[in-house]
Amino acid sequence: MTLPKSSTGEGSPGGAAQNRGMSLLNAMYYLFKPLLPRRFRYTMRRLRARHKLLKSKDWPIMESAAQKPREWAGWPDGKQFALVLTHDVEGPIGLDRCLKLAAMETRLGFRSSFNFIPEGEYSVGKVLRDELGAGDFEIGVHDLRHDGSLYRSRRAFSAAAPRINGYLKEWGAVGFRAGFMFHNLDWLHELKIEYDASTFDTDPFEPQPDGMGTIFPFWVPGRQPDEGYVEMAYTLPQDSTLFLILRENAIDIWKAKLDWIAAQGGMALLNVHPDYMALDGRKSNISEFDAGMYESFLRYAKLKYAGAFWHALPREVARFYRNQMPGSSNPQPRSKDAK
């Protein structure tokens, strides 16, 4: 089984020739994005999503993604499945909400990772990072500038890599996630990471929609036998997709996908943005959703699957997979057309 070509090729983010035109379109969109009114952006994304939804047969559940990696030995302590919570902080509003979100999760008995943009619209202070770390939350690096330019070319990525590595070291972070879920698994070997979380099992709504086709972590080998990193795809639909684009007003899709992942013994990895959450009972607007829905999801998982899941930080899953899986350099993701 080999890595999907669209995730490992050279050139544009997707690497495949058929994606180059889309990469140019993406580059133009992110260049002019700051000039486009928010309502217009959401309207266009909703129209595009409706079209994608009509054509998609593998969302939100891709049945073939349940195939277990070779020599899979199960989760720690015989747990049925893994539950991993992550947050991408996109702007100053999200930054201001991090501690409130962390407090909610702590109250419910959960913890998560917060991925911060090093050179974005806000400055990530050491005080905040330390406070989250003291609460047993994880810090990750989210892109470099989050402007859609990281994967514009191999040269651009290589130029950004040393700066990203510098922030990884400064923050004591071991995980990375690119902006807009762009990915090229070969290029990521330039980063000094234990894991990447820039992919998904299936998600036709992303600008680079090639999914990994698995609900399990997998190893991306480097040139040397002991080199590489763990890839951890998100397997639950993102909050922005469900509540801002598809305009869902309930968590039925989250619950159904969680139930399916639990039945398959996979990894339920969720990405939620504090930027989009209306906390403290505040009425949501066009770019927000009621934080109560996220809280309801956590309560659902906690009550229905009490004692059945391994609740872990991304770095814990990555280390478990690398250290506990026999032949960790062998397992590979399952692409849609894998035989």
Q: Layout of SSEs?
A:
Blueprint: H1 5-8, H2 20-32, H3 38-55, E1 81-89, H4 92-107, E2 113-116, H5 126-134, E3 138-142, H6 154-171, E4 175-177, E5 195-196, E6 218-221, E7 228-231, H7 239-245, H8 252-264, E8 267-271, E9 277-278, E10 289-290, H9 291-304, E11 309-311, H10 314-324
Parallel strand pairs: 1-2, 1-8, 1-11, 2-3, 3-4, 4-5, 5-7, 9-10
Antiparallel strand pairs: 6-7
Account of the protein in words:
By secondary structure, the chain is of the alpha/beta class. The chain has a single domain (5-324), classed as TIM Barrel (Alpha-Beta Barrel), CATH 3.20.20.370. The protein is 36% helix and 13% strand. Mean pLDDT is 86; it is low at 1-22 and 328-339.
Features of this protein?
single chain; alpha/beta; TIM Barrel; nine-stranded mixed beta sheet; 10 helices; 11 strands
Shape, per Cα inertia axes: globular
Main pleated-sheet profile: 9 strands, mixed
- Report how far the terminal alpha carbons are from each other: 8 Å
Q: What proportion of the residues form beta strands (DSSP E)?
A: 5-15%
Order of helices and strands: HHHEHEHEHEEEEHHEEEHEH
Regarding CATH, which class? Alpha Beta
**CATH fold description:** TIM Barrel
Count, helices: 10
In the predicted model, the low-confidence regions spanning at least 5 consecutive residues are 1-22, 328-339
Mean pLDDT across every amino acid position: 86
**Architecture (CATH level 2) name:** Alpha-Beta Barrel
